[in-house]
Amino acid sequence: MVKVGARARRKALRLHGSIARDLGVQIVSGRYQPGHILKGEIDASDRLKVSRTAYREAVRILAAKGLVESRPKVGTKVSAPEHWHLLDPDVLSWIFEYEPDDKLLNGLFELRRIVEPQAAALAALRRTDAELDAMARALEGMKEHSLAVEAGRIADQNFHSALLRASGNAFVVSLTTGVAAAVSWTTIFKQRHSPLARDPMPDHIRVYEAVKAKDPKAAEKAMTTLIDLALLDTTNARRPAKRKASAS
């Protein structure tokens, strides 16, 4: 009986998550614009062929991520983008489900450019041997597996996470989950249609060597270059129409 109950709970969680994902993709892709009122749970559950409870839980997931807000007598309304928890790993995955909005994509890399180069400079001054070792192990994992497979992408996430931890700034470290998710999903996005055209390993190695040498200026410069090249790779991976629009 316990096993049956556990399976039922897991199935319910998958269902809630699936509904939330479908709605979330439609919101972040712009199909549902800010201010749009989602159908009531009775109509929505009938249309989706799910229970009202499942739909209600999915809406709660979206509300917790800032994508919607529910008000009495108004219903569930799509929130403005400034309320979205954009660094939430689920929200980032929904953004990169198809073609990300130009403004969101550029904003994501702007954030990385603001945070990570300074974090690299701080890491060069404050890193411990253990944090440096963690970065080295991550580089080994990236080299062994490549970014074409999940193990290599996890190693890439670990590299960036170790760098942020090495900054020694608790507020910077609090961004680790979001930055790691951004690194992962942009890497997946870049390889949707073809393998990576450029090997990003040398970019990461230059960051590591600068942090190891305790050279903050070199670390900041190396990380800035890494992010700029990652943005270029991501832009080149977009559909031709999107690339042309971004360049104009």
What do these coordinates show?
- The protein is mainly alpha-helical and 248 residues long.
- The chain has two domains: 2-83, Arc Repressor Mutant, subunit A, CATH 1.10.10.10; 89-247, Up-down Bundle (Four Helix Bundle (Hemerythrin (Met), subunit A)), CATH 1.20.120.530.
- Helices cover 70% and strands 3% of the residues.
- It has twelve helices and two strands, in the order αααββααααααααα.
- The protein has helices at 2-28, 41-48, 52-64, 89-95, 102-126, 129-145, 150-166, 170-173, 176-190, 201-212, 216-236, 240-247; strands at residues 68-71, 75-78.
- A two-stranded antiparallel sheet has the order 1-2.
- Strand 1 (68-71) and strand 2 form a beta hairpin.
- The longest helix has 27 residues, at 2-28.
- The termini are far apart.
- The relative contact order is 0.10.
- Mean pLDDT is 88; it is low at 1-6.
Q: How many domains, as an integer?
A: 2
Number of strands: 2
**Stretches with pLDDT under 50, minimum 5 residues:** 1-6
H/E order of the elements?
HHHEEHHHHHHHHH
Strand composition percent: under 5%
Query: What CATH first level of the largest domain would be assigned?
Result: Mainly Alpha
Q: Gap between N and C termini, in Å? A: 61 Å
CATH third-tier fold name of the largest domain = Four Helix Bundle (Hemerythrin (Met), subunit A)
Q: Number of helix segments?
A: 12
